[in-house]
Design a protein that fits this description.
With 284 residues, the chain is an all-alpha fold. The chain is 79% helix and 0% strand. Helix 4 (79-113) packs parallel to helix 7, helix 4 packs antiparallel against helix 9 and helix 6 (137-144) crosses helix 7.
Length: 284
């Protein structure tokens, strides 16, 4: 009995530590429905506010913002024309984005590889990015004529800088432990770049790409304003010139929808190309 009492006192004085729950890192389940419903709910709220301001309260003149029904009627009257112009703007946006992405990544690689090149050309890149691109429209028309060439040039000028910046930043911010691991394994410079630096920089590069994608759509529309012979920007100019604001707003909405689809296509590409990012990070 005395021995049993001593054991009970010892167990009471030194209780066993409770296991600490380890938070699970990775994608949360049950959010697929919210991914679809929440954007739809936001769209319905926006449409409700639009209808309230233009139809119910009539605080905005139809010449500035027509009611949703008028915009829908304008699209339903000539859907083929809208889809044709949407296709032209989409092609210009995607082609210009791909060209700017390729050049931007190459320039970012060069800046990250050489501190001399970085110091030489970074001020020039900042100056080019700071120039108002709409001011270059007439010059592009004079140099390249009308059509897709000045539009693609406008897309390139508007969206290449975030890609350059994100690429250079990602390649120069490799985690110290990964860089030390590559050195300890006697990896060559190319092996360290291919196996360590580039994979570590890819999430940052995709940030720049996602910033540049909406800018590409803006550049395409600005180029169509200045030198386009087709596209949604061209349609907005034509409709605005005759006071057809419903058609102009239908084109503006199509630009927004096109940008949303292209952006989430890029997000899907990121998830397919970088599956480890979601498994190793958490939003809290």
């Amino acid at each position: 009995m005395a021995e049993l009492s001593k054991r009970q006192q010892a167990s009471t004085a030194c209780p066993e530590p409770m296991p600490v729950p380890v938070p699970r890192v990775g994608p949360r389940r049950g959010t697929g429905l919210g991914v679809l419903l929440l954007p739809l709910a936001g769209l319905l709220v926006a449409l409700g506010v639009w209808w309230l301001l233009t139809s119910a309260l009539k605080v905005i003149h139809p010449a500035v913002l027509p009611p949703p029904g008028a915009v829908l009627s304008a699209f339903a009257a000539t859907p083929d024309r809208f889809l044709e112009h949407t296709g032209d703007t989409t092609v210009e946006t995607v082609v210009g984005f791909v060209l700017s992405s390729a050049c931007g990544v190459l320039i970012g690689l060069s800046l990250a590889a050489s501190r001399v090149l970085e110091r030489m050309f970074t001020p020039l890149l900042v100056a080019v990015n700071a120039v108002p691109k709409i001011a270059l429209g007439p010059l592009l028309v004079g140099a390249l004529g009308w059509g897709q060439k000045p539009v693609l040039t406008m897309v390139f000028l508007l969206c290449f800088f975030p890609i350059v910046l994100s690429t250079a930043a990602g390649l120069t911010s490799t985690p110290a432990d990964l860089a030390e691991l590559a050195r300890s394994l006697d990896a060559s410079r190319w092996q360290a770049f291919r196996k360590v630096r580039l994979p570590a920089a890819l999430p940052q590069i995709f940030v720049g790409l996602k910033v540049a994608m909406p800018l590409a759509a803006i550049g395409a529309v600005i180029g169509e304003f200045q030198a386009g012979e087709s596209g949604l920007g061209y349609l907005i100019v034509q409709a605005g010139g005759v006071g057809d604001t419903a058609t102009a707003w239908a084109a503006i909405i199509l630009i927004g929808l096109m940008s949303i689809l292209l952006y989430f296509a890029l997000v899907l590409l990121e998830r397919l190309a970088l599956p480890w990012v979601r498994d190793t990070t958490s939003r809290g």
